[in-house]
Design a protein that fits this description.
This protein is an alpha+beta fold. The chain is built from 11 helices and 14 strands. It has 2 domains: 121 residues, no CATH class; 194 residues, Gcn5-related N-acetyltransferase (GNAT) (Aminopeptidase), CATH 3.40.630.30.
């Protein structure tokens, strides 16, 4: 158990911070008034921590100039959805596709989503799997700098140099793929898929907003599910399904339309100090997004979008949203206009 200095990414920027190395896992602390220790890059690791008790003991024994924290948090990894420990816990809302086979996923989609995948193919989009090279880094640089605003907020990768873009792509190269959507020679969307045993997680997902009529986002998700099927991977995850009390966002709607559902996974919060115990009882650790009601969060999000002064064309689909109850009525099995999944030309 030694303190090391590692680089971590916070909102798209890299910082060097102290970390406690325990069994190859790095524990770092965040926060000012309330410090929370967590497993760095936990959501991209191949396995969960095996000895949380050792982590807790090490954090409690830290000297004054060591890594001090009031709470320690860690999560279980799919498919472990039943709590293994008696520590205080809450639920992580994970956006998940349970991949049995491509055909079953395809037939579960709304008709509109299936049409979007076909539309992408008909309009000349070619989806392929690549490893990062100089050409791809250059294409990612252009893609990142298309717009300073995405989803109604500042895009953290906008304005980065080629060197910074290359640095961002250095992690997990030995167990990841880049799914790239091209229109001719133009990269119009990219999805970085990180393999974690029986789970594959989406680390990067950037469709080109100016080419949204070609539906690159839908084509990229379809290819990701196809890859999971081929590799016998059981779960495809894409961040959170619900972020605290924030619901009914365009991104959440996109996930639903593309077959993602909520899976609840235990997340533990262990008090390390008296302050941590009080904060846990008062739920201060959840932050504003976990404390404020959805209606208030919606007002604040809308206000933020107005401050940026743009109508965000970077939604995951350029089509207007419609209520889920209408889209559910559009589902058909087999997919409309086909007898099987072969109507989707797999790249």
């Amino acid at each position: 158990m030694t303190v090391e200095f590692i680089e971590i990414a916070i909102k798209g920027r890299w910082y060097t911070v102290p970390a406690l190395n325990i069994d190859g896992r790095h524990l770092v602390a965040k926060g000012n008034w309330l410090k929370i220790a967590y497993v760095n890059n936990e959501q991209w690791l191949e396995s969960e921590i095996e000895n949380p008790g050792r982590c807790i003991e090490a954090l409690k024994d830290q000297p004054r100039d060591g890594i001090r924290a009031d709470l320690f948090t860690f999560s279980q990894k799919l498919p472990a959805t039943k709590p293994k420990y008696s520590y205080p816990s809450e639920w992580d809302s994970v956006a998940t596709v349970h991949v049995t086979n491509f055909k079953e996923w395809w037939e579960s989609l709304p008709q509109e989503t299936r049409k979007n995948v076909r539309r992408s193919q008909k309009r000349g989009v070619v989806v392929s799997v690549k490893k990062p090279d100089d050409r791809l880094i250059q294409d990612l640089y252009v893609l990142n700098n298309e717009s300073a605003v995405r989803q109604g907020k500042a895009f953290t990768h906008y304005g980065k140099t080629l060197a910074q873009v290359a640095r961002d792509q250095m992690d997990y190269l030995d167990r990841s793929d880049y799914i790239c959507a091209y229109f001719g020679d133009e990269l119009i969307g990219v999805l970085k898929l990180v393999y974690r045993g029986e789970v594959a997680s989406i680390l990067t997902f950037v469709p080109k907003t100016s080419q949204s009529d070609k539906r690159p986002a839908n084509a990229l998700i379809a290819k990701a599910v196809e890859i999971c099927d081929e590799r016998k991977i059981s779960y495809l995850t894409y961040g959170m399904f619900n972020y605290g009390n924030k619901h009914h966002t365009p991104l959440r709607e996109f996930k639903i339309r593309n077959g993602f559902r909520e899976v609840l996974v235990p997340r533990y919060y262990i008090p390390l100090t008296m302050k941590g115990s009080v904060a846990l009882k008062l739920r201060v650790h959840q932050g504003l997004i976990g404390l404020l009601p959805h209606s208030v969060i919606t007002v604040l999000v809308d206000a933020r979008a107005k401050v940026y002064g743009v109508f965000d064309p970077g939604r995951c689909s350029s089509r207007l949203e419609r209520p889920n109850r209408i889209r559910q009525m559009e589902r058909s099995t087999p997919p409309a206009g086909s007898n099987d999944t072969q109507s989707v030309a797999h790249p």
